[in-house]
Amino acid sequence: xxxxxxxxxxxVFDLFHTLVDPDDFRPAGFRRLEASAAVLGVDFALLEAxxxxxxxxxxxxxxxxxxxxxxxxxxxxRPARTLDIAPAAEALGRYQDxxxxxxxxxxxxxxxxxxxxxxxxxxxxxxxxxxxxRQSPLVGLVGSAVFSTKAHVAKPDPEAYAAVVxxxxxxxxxxxxxxxxxxxxxxxxxxxxxxxxxxxTWFDDLRGRIGEIERQRRSSFAxxxxxxxxxxAEFLEA
Length: 238
Description:
Helix content: 40-55%
CATH superfamily of the largest domain: HAD superfamily/HAD-like
CATH architecture of the largest domain: 3-Layer(aba) Sandwich
Structural class: alpha/beta
Shape: elongated
Low-confidence stretches: none
Largest sheet: 6 strands, parallel
Strand order of the largest sheet: 3-2-1-4-5-6
CATH class of the largest domain: Alpha Beta
Order of helices and strands: EHHHHHEEHHEHEHHEH
């Protein structure tokens, strides 16, 4: 690999499905929009359509989950009181909360092994996804976290990578980016001239979440594909 050694570079991790996975806690068959619609007392298809339309704004912090739920409730004849909205919002975020509060031991060990490095997180999320972040054990192991809903930029836009690089005080080519490839983040990292790109497949492989064609497509934007935390630690320490 050209340039600085991997062991000297700053690290940027994706969060969900890379460092933590809500599916570690989510019951089989659980669909969070479906559960939220049931609590809210509206038709699932109506909430799903409104959610999909609002998602770009939710992820970029131009809308909020509770605001969306209130609008859907009001537009469908439901009173939009706070007591109606809170349980519906909780249904959307309860397993994200658990994932943040209880990351896997292997992930904590990985981050501890690379503590001599500058470490940051860059993630696409909406406001309800990250309510438990401040209580997460991950907070003490990373130097900074750039959340799309607060930075108002989202992957794969180059501005998202520029935002996290700015918090680390380095240049893009001095960064190793690690992610599972969702939201075309690896392609975005390539466009943003990130120095080293790692397709980290651990959680996706455990769940059988993506097919082989999609797995190969994501890997095509990376310098290396790694399937477990121990292998990732060894690569970063090489």
